[in-house]
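for ur thesis appendix - Chup1-like protein. copy paste whatever u need, i formatted it the way the template wanted (i think)
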Amino acid sequence: MNTLLAKQIQINSALYTFTIQQTNTETCYSLNNLNDGTFYMGTVYNQPLTVEYANKLAKDLEKNQSFFELFKERIVISYGFMTINLQKQQKQLVTKQNTNQTQIDSKLLKRLESLEQRVNNIEELELKVQQLNTRVNDLEGEIQTNSETFFQNMYSSEKSENVKVFYGSTSKDNTNWTVYSQNSHLKIAIDLSSCNFVTKPTILTSLGGINYHCSTMGSSSVYYATKDGFYVLVTRSNISPTKVKEWKWHLNWVAIGEVKQN
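the 3d part is after this line
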């Protein structure tokens, strides 16, 4: 497209850039108000101009306000010129962008505040967990230190110095379980002869393992207890020594009683 004319013209104290470009079939006009950004643009088909006529048209627009208004009116009616206030649209776009950015910043700020609050809550929980762990450790130490005295007090109101506490567990990998009743009852015998109890002690038991030990019955029931030992019968459907060995079943026990004096 060939530029036929490009010059600044003064119309009613407003400065415009007036441009005419054309090809063999169309002529493009543009008027850009440099004061307020108003922009007029349009195309006329099959009406080629000469440079002389283009310059005359620019002078007429600059000198004659009525001709300028008529020129715009005829262009709008005959050729469909569009009037676009670019400056106004640009301001609206900037305002919209600023508004959107403000909304985004506000959302990000709220999310940041929420995350900070969560971090604070986590730190508070971690502190409480540390305090609880410390308390648990203290209690475990107290229980460990006073366990023998505790059981002695339970066993005898006289607090005999000959009352002792013994405890142990059978092997997790090789407890000697025997069949008491096929597919439902297993028996384990615990030997207490090395404890040298004078009489039958008080006995506490529990069953440990990695599978299914929580679904049993009888693991805390002691049978045939004497000063030298006892039995426990564990009940559950479909059990065998081979299966419970895979499940690492084992018996934990505590025995409290009076022992022979040295």
